[in-house]
Amino acid sequence: MNKKKINLLYIEDDKDIQEIYLEVIEQEVDIVHLAYDGEEGYEVYLATKPDIILLDINMPKLDGLSLAKKIREIDSEVKIIITTAYGEQEKLLQAIELYLIKYILKPIDPAILIEALQKAKNEIFASQKEEEPTVKIFTLDETTTWHFDTEKLYENDAEVKLTKNERRLLKLLSTNKNKVFTFFEIFDHISYDNFDKHYDAGQVRALVKLLRKKIPKESILNIYAEGYRFNPLVEHTLKASDING
């Protein structure tokens, strides 16, 4: 089995610091994406779905711990490494549930950074070796299925065309069928590549109404005063070989 290319997102608001460690990082991974604050980091994460995230605990707009928690709500697999100044170590007590690869004190020792990156890569490659790829399919009713990995909706085995935002909405909700996604979380997700966005709950309601015309209405539950939750009949996790073969 060929080893996959490792994709890393590096989020650091100090561009000079970021530049210092880029050479070390680029020797260890195949692709590097950069971001300079927490909000931009989340947008780049959604757009690139990296294997590893290296981020600073103290960032503008959205701090590193809040960003890591937000990502962990929808992604349990990405490897997260946090950098922190000595005086910020107490904050890491909040991070126990984030399953970090490592936290690294600043100034960063390149040898420790390399060790953390190699640990992350080893976990990724071990997972690749041990686990056969799987696909997730949700049955919405007797005739309608949502294929999570390919982001395709089918009715009676015929594909139902979705708009970009309908697809993004259904993908987000189906990342965690037990989670109620707030109006703001949904709006932020569907408009992550629109840098002129202005929060509009009405836009979210209108999008849900349009999507409900293409799926069973009860597949998306309206949780009063909170947001929306995905409600499939059945969730299937199948081996990719079973689908392809």
The CATH superfamily title of the largest domain: Response regulator
CATH architecture annotation of the largest domain: 3-Layer(aba) Sandwich
The overall pLDDT average reads: 87
* Low-confidence spans: none
Which word captures the global form?
Answer: globular
Number of continuous helical runs:
8
Q: In which range does the helix fraction lie?
A: 25-40%
Question: Topology as H/E string?
Answer: EHEHEHEEHEEEEHEHHEEEH
If strands are numbered along the chain, what order do they take across the biggest sheet?
A: 2-1-3-4-5
Main sheet makeup: 5 strands, parallel
Number of strands: 13
Name the structural class. Answer: alpha/beta
End-to-end separation in angstroms reads: 18 Å
Approximately how much beta-strand content do the residues carry? 15-25%
Query: What is the name of the CATH topology of the largest domain?
Result: Rossmann fold
Supply Rg.
20 Å
Q: What's the number of structural domains? A: 2
> What's the level 1 CATH class of the largest domain?
Alpha Beta
3D architecture notes:
- The chain is of the alpha/beta class.
- It folds into two domains: 124 residues, Rossmann fold (3-Layer(aba) Sandwich), CATH 3.40.50.2300; 111 residues, Arc Repressor Mutant, subunit A (Orthogonal Bundle), CATH 1.10.10.10.
- The chain contains eight helices and 13 strands.
- Strand 7 and strand 8 form a beta hairpin.
- The longest helix is centred in the middle third of the chain and has 21 residues.
